[in-house]
Design goal:
mainly alpha, Cytochrome Bc1 Complex, Chain D, domain 2, 2 strands, 12 helices
Length: 331
């Protein structure tokens, strides 16, 4: 009996090992928790991320377009900028953005630090200048003290501002989705319908672009491979950065992590639902018309990619002083 039980135990262990190895070979990997961060910079960056005084109006913060209560985006086709200007492009999620090959749809920022400074000085977004944003922070004693504590000197500059914001954004990863739990060996984490959707996702070719930890974000691809995409946005994609005509309408492949929360979809926000997005992607990128059932199964799989959302106490921002330049929401 002992040898029989031992044999059964070894068989079970072997089966589990094979299953684990099979999942390890999947083209999607589990999101890892934050590995290494500077906690002091994170706490300062968190305040700066939520501080609307980095905008000319005193009304728009990083969180306005990348709302951490809404999947790291604003759920609008295109975002609202300074003086209610309509932006030209859909705001991508900030969640898991540290896993991207580059930042912005056209990749014009190499990393999170480079991205953080862009919206502040963009006249169509936060509408300020780096110099004025720094002067606001320098007029607030609590910020002056905190910058000195974090960086070790009395100066405040845009480099330190963007370093801190980027360090905070590195913490905005979303591990522990149901799909991650399945990848890690929990065979009951997904339903048969969701697994059928994942099989379709892989076997139809979606996985060619949407892979890795972020299920995307690691390459640039042309929008409209099998059929042209009738874009309603003036954005030209990667060609705006490289100047190469061959890069026209190539955009950074978006992450599909938390995709159930980050509607509407595509760089112009024209797909309002996941069902619509799956249909368009199937036809335009793969030359495949998914049936209603196939579409529903892929959508069911995509909804398993929602992970643990960032959770923390909202920062209390230090008050302005008499020296702080006033906001200009109307002028």
């Amino acid at each position: 009996m002992f040898f029989k039980l031992k044999t059964i135990t070894l068989l079970l262990i072997g089966t589990a090992a094979v299953a684990t190895a099979a999942r390890a070979a999947e083209p999607i990997q589990p999101i890892k928790p934050v590995q290494s961060i500077n906690l002091a910079q994170v706490e300062l960056g968190k305040k700066l991320y939520f501080d609307p005084r980095l905008s000319k109006s005193g009304f728009i913060s990083c969180n306005s377009c990348h709302n951490l209560s809404m999947g790291g985006t604003d759920n609008l086709k295109t975002s609202i900028g300074d003086h209610w200007q309509q932006g030209p492009i859909n705001a991508p999620t900030v969640l898991n953005s540290s896993l991207n090959v580059a930042q912005f749809w056209d990749g014009r920022a190499a990393d999170l630090k480079a991205q953080a400074g862009g919206p502040i000085a963009n006249p169509g977004e936060m509408g300020f200048t780096h110099q004025l944003a720094v002067s606001v922070l320098a007029s607030i004693p609590e910020y002056v003290v905190e910058f000195k504590q974090v960086f070790g000197d009395d100066s405040i500059d845009i480099d330190k501002v963007t370093v801190a914001i980027a360090e905070f954004e590195k913490t905005l990863v979303t591990p522990n989705s149901r799909f991650d739990r399945w990848l890690l060996g929990d065979k009951d984490a997904l339903t048969p319908n969701e697994l059928a959707g994942y099989d379709l996702f892989k076997n139809s070719g979606c996985i060619a672009c949407h892979n890795g930890e972020a299920v995307g974000g690691n390459s640039f691809q042309k929008m409209g491979v099998m059929e042209p995409y009738q874009a309603k946005s003036p954005a030209e994609g990667l060609s705006a950065v490289t100047g190469k005509d061959a890069d026209r309408f190539k955009f950074k492949v978006p992450t599909l992590r938390n995709v159930a929360m980050t509607y509407p979809y595509f760089h112009d926000g024209e797909a309002e639902t996941l069902t619509e997005a799956v249909d368009i992607m199937g036809r335009l990128q793969l030359g495949k018309q998914f049936s209603e059932q196939e579409n529903a199964q892929i959508v069911a799989f995509l909804k398993t990619l929602t992970g643990d959302q960032p959770s923390f106490l909202l920062p209390i921002l230090p008050p302005s002083t008499d020296r702080t330049p006033p906001p200009k929401p109307f002028g």
